[in-house]
Design goal:
Elements: E1 7-12, H1 19-31, E2 35-40, H2 42-46, H3 54-65, H4 73-76, E3 87-93, H5 95-102, H6 109-118, E4 124-130, H7 138-145, E5 150-152, E6 155-156, E7 167-169, H8 174-181
Parallel strand pairs: 1-2, 1-3, 3-4, 4-5
Antiparallel strand pairs: 4-7, 6-7
Helix pairs in contact: 1-3, 5-7
C-alpha cells in the first residue's frame, strides 16, 4: 500500500458542505495504510448545520482513525515540536483558514497544527473550498501558492454561473497531491475544470 507508514495529520475546517468529501479521503488514506490523526476547527467541533450534526462528524472521525480528534490550540501545538506528521492536510480548507494562514494568524486548532507543522519544513497540503477564491481570497491563494512547503490540491470553479468567485479542490486528488508534496513537488496542473 502506497501510504504504509506515512503519518498524516488531517485537519477539517468549517466548509460543512464538503466534510463528507474529506471523510471519504480520510478513510481512503487509512485503508491504504496511512496513520491518520484528525484535527478539527472550532466550527467543525461545535456547529450543527443542514449538512450534519457536529457530534456525528466527530464520531465518524473517531471511527475511521481510531483516534480522538485534536480539537484545541494547546492540543495542536505539539505537532511541530514532536514532529508528529510526515504531511499535514487541510481538507476542506475554508477561505477563512486560507486568509489566516496567509497572514500568520493562529486562532484555531487547524491553524496551530499547520503553523507548528511548517516549522519542520514538512509539506502542508491545502484542499480549498471557498466562495471567494476569485474574490478577496485570490491574493491569499497566490501567497500560499508561492510559500515554501505549502502545496495545493488542484482546484477549479465549481459553479461559475451562480457563484463566479467560488473555488473548490478536486478532493479525489488529495492522495496524489500528498505523494507529490512528500517529494517536494507541486502536483500539476493546479487549475482544473471542476466538471
Amino acid at each position: 500500500m502506497q501510504f504504509d507508514g506515512l503519518k498524516i495529520g488531517f485537519a477539517l475546517t468549517g466548509s460543512h458542505c464538503m466534510l463528507h468529501e474529506g471523510i471519504k479521503i480520510m478513510k481512503r488514506l487509512v485503508d491504504e495504510g496511512a496513520d491518520v490523526t484528525p484535527i478539527i476547527s472550532y466550527a467543525v467541533e461545535s456547529m450543527d448545520t443542514r449538512f450534519g450534526k457536529a457530534e456525528d462528524w466527530l464520531n465518524q472521525f473517531r471511527e475511521i482513525t481510531n483516534k480522538e480528534p485534536i480539537h484545541t490550540i494547546p492540543g495542536a501545538e505539539p505537532v511541530g515540536p514532536q514532529k508528529m506528521f510526515d504531511c499535514l492536510v487541510v481538507a476542506p480548507c475554508t477561505g477563512n483558514t486560507l486568509a489566516k494562514l496567509a497572514n500568520g494568524i493562529t486562532d484555531t486548532p487547524a491553524l496551530m497544527a499547520s503553523k507548528s507543522h511548517l516549522r519542520n519544513q514538512r509539506p502542508l497540503v491545502l484542499a480549498i473550498s471557498t466562495n471567494d477564491g476569485l474574490g478577496l481570497n485570490a491574493r491569499n491563494i497566490g501567497t500560499l501558492l508561492i510559500t515554501k512547503n505549502i502545496y495545493l490540491v488542484p482546484f477549479g470553479q465549481d459553479n461559475p454561473q451562480v457563484k463566479a468567485n467560488s473555488l473548490v479542490a478536486h478532493m479525489d486528488k488529495i492522495p496524489e497531491t500528498i505523494l507529490m508534496a512528500c517529494t517536494g513537488k507541486q502536483i500539476q496542473p493546479v487549475l482544473l475544470d471542476y466538471r
